[in-house]
Design brief:
globular; mainly alpha; Serine Threonine Protein Phosphatase 5, Tetratricopeptide repeat; two-stranded antiparallel ribbon; 41% helix; 6 strands
């Protein structure tokens, strides 16, 4: 029996005639549920449910439930912190060791992916070739997403590092672990090797998913060819592989460019359960947050429960920094996503991108959207050798004109053009978990009123979990955390 190890508890679909209908429903919903992974992957239903479990990890507070969105903003220069309460205050202060911690949940998800891919090598009865390719394509996309997030948190990026303390990226675990005697203790792979694996996974995902739709009514909830190309444009940008950025962005936009929001629909789009221009987003149903009172994005970023509420009801301790807010022009449509808080936050500016769109704690989290793809390509055009500045201007103007700003002129070139693209990236993707990584991948210092953080400081990298370094002597810790 192909049972395998799983580190966290998920919904268990027990055998028995009384529960068969419940099991059927579990396998026919958006990616929020799964069966116990100790059950062998010897049926189509079990494989689908295990894949749903991989999606479910993305909703954890340490992942897109909060930390992958909020902490990159806190570590960088986009936020202020009320210090009331003190949750995440150490991150805002960039204190040593205060960082993101996705190690355990990511590797649990990766092991499930590896087991799914192993099961598909000799698929069980009922798994036809199209289903096999659809599941495998999603698995490869998700593994690439998990590994890219791990690599950019725990390691340096391909073109920006402090060589004397660059101990590599993270361990590459590509074999399924089903029994305790199969557990290995690898060292950290090089950044180059991890990126090579991410490239391979995304190429495979695109080829397997191209022309297929997992769920026609909710395509944004699942991996797709468009999502693979969009994520590839991000990964290649981190790798300064500009030709690949341009090619992958073109593919992503061809498949999803019609989703781009307009000036008149921009604010309304952020009030919908699904962001209209999302290419891939993490879906949250009511009750999905483990601790919505303390850990959801709504309570982190806002002081009210809903857009129209007038009473203070949330923490709202992570607010908009003055430097960021001051960079929006008065006629910029994106200013409509900011508003003063209530109660003790009445004088604070808050972001409303995650403010109970459909119901309280019912905020999907966009992971990849069309605007980012335009900005990825604009930066790649501007930084290519030779630079393709007219094309870069065209892409950044797509973002500027949608915001209600005048297009940049033909005279804008060189570093000034790059600076404008990076500014629009900061303004457009604010509070979506990009800012810290955008500074880090370029080797830039973080400039903050409370104290700057140099790129060569230990605080740039997350410490590897202490228990992992104790268990695996082959893991070299970042600096001396």
């Amino acid at each position: 029996m192909n049972t395998y190890i799983k580190k966290s508890t998920i919904i268990t679909c027990l055998a028995g005639s009384l529960l068969l209908s419940a099991c059927d429903r579990i396998l026919d919903v958006t990616p929020k549920q799964s069966i116990d992974s100790r059950i062998a992957l010897e049926s189509p239903e079990a494989i689908k449910a295990s894949l749903n479990s991989v999606y479910a990890y993305l909703r954890q507070a340490s992942q897109y439930g909060r930390d992958l969105i909020a902490i990159p903003e806190l570590l960088a220069d986009n936020t202020d912190h009320t210090n009331n309460p003190t949750e995440l205050y150490s991150h805002f202060r960039n204190q040593p060791g205060a960082h993101m911690g996705i190690w355990g949940s990511s590797y649990s998800a990766i092991n499930e992916i590896n087991n799914i891919l192993l099961a598909l090598e000799n698929p069980p009865v009922g798994v036809n070739n199209e289903l096999k390719e659809t599941i495998a394509g999603q698995a490869h996309f998700l593994r690439a997403l998990y590994y890219h997030n791990l690599s950019k948190i725990y390691g340096y990026d391909p073109k920006a590092s402090v060589d004397e303390v660059n101990y590599g990226s993270v361990p590459l675990m590509l074999d399924a672990v089903r029994k305790t005697d199969q557990v290995t203790y690898p060292s950290r792979a090089s950044v180059e090797d991890v990126y090579a694996q991410i490239y391979e996974d995304l190429e495979t995902a695109y080829n397997l998913l191209n022309g297929k739709t997992v769920d026609a009514s909710n395509p944004e909830y699942y991996a797709s060819a468009a999502a693979a190309a969009a994520l590839f444009s991000r990964v290649a940008l981190y790798n300064e592989d500009y030709d690949r950025v341009i090619a992958e962005a073109a593919s992503a936009l061809e498949l999803s460019g019609a989703k781009f929001m307009t000036n008149s629909t921009y604010i309304a789009g952020w009030r919908q359960m699904k962001l209209p221009e999302s290419i891939f987003e993490v879906v949250f149903h009511l009750g999905d947050y483990t601790d919505p009172v303390n850990e959801s994005l709504r309570v982190t970023f806002t002081s009210r429960q809903t857009l129209s509420a007038t009473a203070f009801s949330n923490r709202g301790n992570v607010v908009v920094g003055a430097d960021l807010y001051g960079r929006y022009a008065s006629n910029d449509v994106r200013r409509g996503l900011f508003m003063n808080g209530v109660g003790r936050n009445a004088s604070r500016i808050e972001i409303t991108k995650y403010l109970s769109r459909s119901a309280v704690n019912h905020d999907n989290v966009p992971v990849i959207r069309v605007s980012e793809v335009y900005l990825n390509r604009a930066e790649a055009y501007a930084k290519s050798t030779p630079a393709q500045e007219e094309l870069a201007r065209q892409d950044v103007n797509v973002i500027r004109e949608r915001a209600g700003l005048t297009p940049v002129s033909e005279s804008l070139s060189g570093q000034a053009l790059i600076d404008e693209i990076l500014l629009q990236r900061r303004l457009e993707l604010a509070f979506e978990g990009h800012r810290f990584f955008d500074l880090k991948r370029q080797g830039m210092d973080i400039i903050k009123p409370i104290g700057n953080v140099r790129f060569d400081e230990p605080r740039i990298l997350a410490p590897l979990p202490y228990t992992e370094t104790q268990r695996n002597i082959n893991l070299k810790q970042n600096f001396d955390f």
